[in-house]
Write a structure and sequence with these properties.
Layout (H helix, E strand, L loop, with lengths): L1 E3 L4 E4 L9 E5 L10 E4 L4 E4 L8 E9 L2 E19 L4 E3 L5 E3 L2 E5 L3 E6 L2 E2 L9 E4 L2 E4 L8 E9 L2 E11 L2 E5 L21 E4 L6
Parallel strand pairs: 1-7, 8-16
Antiparallel strand pairs: 2-5, 3-6, 4-5, 6-7, 7-10, 9-14, 11-12, 11-15, 13-14, 15-16, 17-18
Length: 208
């Protein structure tokens, strides 16, 4: 059986015999998670809530009476629709900076990640573009004001699809010091004094 992460799993074991057999459920790899498992209909039905990857594996039903026993095995594979580990975020950059957009997703099977820039798949853009894709991240080097764009990350496997838009804004702003002039700092002799110089600009200005 293939079951989805986060969903319930229901297994049935219908046994016949006289005297009426009793039913037990076993898990060879370890104990059943007591906080998530319930048994119904005289143990004929097992329900396991909120499946996780750790619930992969074999489940056995054992039917017994005074004359003998019978077994039945289920093999459960837990899979998952794509979900975010790190969603790409819009950001402001200055000319010459490197832009990085992370699109980190997880799922079972591992989702395939594709990128679009201004609606065009990156595979269809000219190969001399200054972008590269590295471990699911879109990286653009030496961005300029003309590189302001919308990007779209898409992740899919057979259980679902994730989409996220993120904007790259490239602006040019002159350096400006935000810390007020002529500030007085009081410090105890022998301690460390920290003098502040808060600056803003695009690209990010260096401070000396």
């Amino acid at each position: 059986l293939v079951a989805l992460q986060g969903q319930p799993l229901v297994l049935e074991c219908i046994a016949e015999g006289f005297p009426t057999p009793t039913i037990k459920w076993l898990r060879p790899s370890g104990p059943m998670p007591a906080d998530r498992v319930t048994y119904q209909n005289h143990n004929k039905t097992l329900q396991l809530l909120k499946l996780g990857e750790e619930d992969d594996g074999e489940y056995r039903c054992l039917a017994e009476n005074s004359l003998g026993s019978a077994r039945h095995a289920y093999y459960v594979t837990v899979e998952a629709a794509p979900y975010w580990l790190h969603k790409p975020q819009s950001h402001l950059y200055g000319p010459g900076e490197t832009a990085r957009l992370d699109c980190q997703v997880q799922g079972r099977p591992q989702p395939e990640v594709t990128w679009r820039i201004n609606g065009i798949p990156v595979e269809e853009l000219a190969k001399d573009q200054k972008y590269r894709i590295q471990r699911g991240a879109l990286i653009l080097s030496n961005v300029q004001p003309s590189d302001t764009m919308v990007t779209q990350c898409e992740a899919r496997n057979r259980h679902g699809l994730l989409l996220a838009n993120a904007y790259i804004y490239v602006v040019q702003l002159p350096a400006k010091i935000l810390t007020a002039d002529n500030q007085t700092y009081m410090a105890v002799q022998g301690s460390t004094a920290y003098l502040l110089c808060k600056a803003f600009g695009a690209p990010v200005p260096s401070v000396q």
